[in-house]
Design a protein that fits this description.
Number of helices: 3
Structural class: alpha+beta
Number of domains: 1
Low-confidence stretches: none
Shape: globular
Strand order of the largest sheet: 1-2-3-4
Mean pLDDT: 83
CATH class: Alpha Beta
Distance between the termini: 33 Å
Order of helices and strands: HEHEEHE
Strand content: 15-25%
Helix content: 25-40%
CATH superfamily: Cation efflux protein, cytoplasmic domain
Number of strands: 4
Radius of gyration: 16 Å
Length: about 120
C-alpha cells in the first residue's frame, strides 16, 4: 500500500465522524528548495509577531516559529494557542485574522501555516 494511502487509512479509522482529513508534509534537511531566512527576515517576522497582541488584541502566544525563504518570498510556520472551548470555526477565524495582520506587516510574505492548538495541550 502506498504510504499516503496508509496514512489516510490509519487516520480515518479512529476519526470516522470527520468527512475529510487534511495533512501536509514539510520538508526538512539540507536538500530542500527552501533557503534559510536572513537575520533581517527573522527580525521582521519576530517583530510583527511580538506586536500582534498590542496591535490586534489577539493573544495567541506564537511559538515553534520556522521562517524560510522560498524564492523571493518568506515562508512562515508557527503554532498559536486558542481557547480550548473554541469551535473549529472560531479557531480558523482567529488564524485568518492573524495571517491578515502579518500580511499587512511583512512585505513579501508568501506561504503561511498556522497550527492552532488548545491552551493547556
Amino acid at each position: 500500500m502506498p504510504r499516503p494511502r496508509l496514512l489516510r487509512t490509519s487516520c480515518a479509522r479512529p476519526c470516522r465522524r470527520f468527512d475529510q482529513i487534511v495533512t501536509h508534509i514539510e520538508p526538512t534537511g539540507e536538500h530542500v528548495a527552501w533557503r534559510q531566512a536572513t537575520e533581517a527576515d527573522e527580525a521582521e517576522v519576530r517583530r510583527a509577531l511580538a506586536t500582534l497582541l498590542e496591535e490586534t488584541g489577539i493573544d495567541c502566544r506564537p511559538h515553534a516559529i520556522t521562517i524560510r525563504r522560498d524564492g523571493d518570498e518568506l515562508a512562515l510556520t508557527f503554532h498559536c494557542i486558542a481557547d480550548p472551548d473554541a469551535s473549529i470555526t472560531d479557531a480558523h477565524d482567529l488564524s485568518v485574522q492573524v495571517e491578515s495582520f502579518l500580511r499587512k506587516e511583512i512585505p513579501g510574505l508568501g506561504r503561511v501555516i498556522i497550527h492552532m492548538e488548545p491552551d493547556g495541550a
